[in-house]
Write a structure and sequence with these properties.
CATH superfamily of the largest domain: HUPs
Radius of gyration: 24 Å
Strand order of the largest sheet: 6-7-9-8-10-11
Order of helices and strands: EHEHEHHEHEHHHHEEHEEHEEH
Number of strands: 11
CATH class of the largest domain: Alpha Beta
Number of helices: 12
Distance between the termini: 45 Å
């Protein structure tokens, strides 16, 4: 861990892995401010690359701390965002306010003086208009302690600028969606490792939004758990005749990811043949369990066998049964597979 330096001003910089947040942090670090990077994990960011963050630390010469967020609080934000959704199930404004509130709390814990973000005026239609930038600043309660170095010249001066901790003349006035100036600046500052702007939060993806909506429609928002939403990142999804959901891994990596949810679901595997791990809701009917097992057989390497042995693990107990794997062209497969509108 980097020792906290109390002899100079210190800021907390939000680091997303993208270019803009790194440039903002680097601009402030070059002014002699001690910069502590932080990345908040919500559980809905596309698979995080730990190696990328180590490279960013080397590029920027700062420490990046990876922090979680309260799971239930974030779940409620997804269910009922005060400022509504974007084009998918993305509560971007509420999420930004939420993360900045967490940032303020952590800023105070480490005795930092202000928070830095890579936001660019006019870059994102929902969260980076001038009015929404003001809204986020106000509702996060950071107010003058929130500095956006890439667009600072177009925004009201902040406390770090007014007090002379940061030289406003060395900050930028970038506006809009073009990334030309950022790319030029990256070359100048030696920022070489960053994720592309098209990636990021799953909540902004249309198909993932459909997945969430299907859960809300079937189970009800009040009964939806964090596990119900996080598991949507993986597998083929089927809604079975009696209402249970089966989630079937598509490859070894997804099987490993699905194992993280075994405390919340029953599981089905095929004996003697490589194949998927299937999760099925606790309390599923016997009919749904059998169909889920037949689907599991369909996607296993034993799919062309007349019968297969499946093993069901339920509440710490296991049982086996013989099943006929569904045929490749079975009408049940498209009938039961959830259509997520893509």
């Amino acid at each position: 861990m980097v020792k906290e330096n109390t002899d100079r001003h210190k800021c907390l910089a939000l680091i997303s892995g993208g270019l803009d947040s790194q440039l903002a942090a680097k601009l402030i670090a070059t002014q002699g401010i001690e910069v502590i990077g932080v990345n908040f994990r919500t559980g809905f960011i596309s698979e995080d690359d730990e190696e990328l963050y180590r490279q960013i630390e080397n590029d920027l010469g700062i420490e990046i701390r990876i922090l979680g967020v309260p799971e239930e609080d974030y779940l409620e934000l997804i269910k009922s965002p005060e400022h509504g959704y974007g084009s998918a199930m993305n509560p971007c404004l509420d999420c930004r306010i939420f993360i900045l509130k967490r940032s303020k709390k952590y800023m105070e814990e480490i005795s930092a003086d202000f928070v830095v973000t890579g936001e660019v005026l006019g870059q994102r239609p929902m969260t980076q208009r001038k009015d929404t930038l003001e809204l986020v600043k106000r509702e996060s309660t950071l107010d003058g302690k929130l500095l956006r170095p890439l667009s600072a010249g177009l925004l009201a001066p902040t406390i770090p600028e007014e007090k002379g901790w940061v030289d406003r003349k060395k900050l930028l006035d970038i506006e809009g969606r073009s990334r030309k100036r950022q790319l030029e600046l990256a070359d100048q500052l030696g920022v070489n490792n960053y994720s592309q702007p098209a990636g990021g939060c799953l909540l902004t993806e249309e198909e993932f939004g459909h997945r969430i909506q299907e859960v809300f429609d079937h189970k009800g928002k009040d009964k939806t758990t964090a596990s119900d939403l996080k598991v949507l990142k993986y597998g083929r999804h089927f809604r079975l005749p009696d209402g249970a959901k089966a989630i079937i891994g598509r490859n070894e990596e997804e099987n490993e990811s699905l194992e993280e949810f075994l405390d919340d679901y029953w599981s089905i595997r095929i004996v003697d043949f490589p194949g998927p791990l299937t999760l099925i809701n606790r309390g599923a009917s016997e009919e749904d369990v059998v169909i889920a097992a037949r689907l599991t057989g369909r996607y296993s390497q034993g799919r062309d066998q007349e019968t297969l042995e499946a093993i069901l693990e339920r509440d710490g107990k296991t049982r086996t049964c013989r099943i006929e794997p569904l045929k490749r062209d079975s009408d049940l497969i498209p009938e039961l597979r959830i259509d997520y509108g893509s």
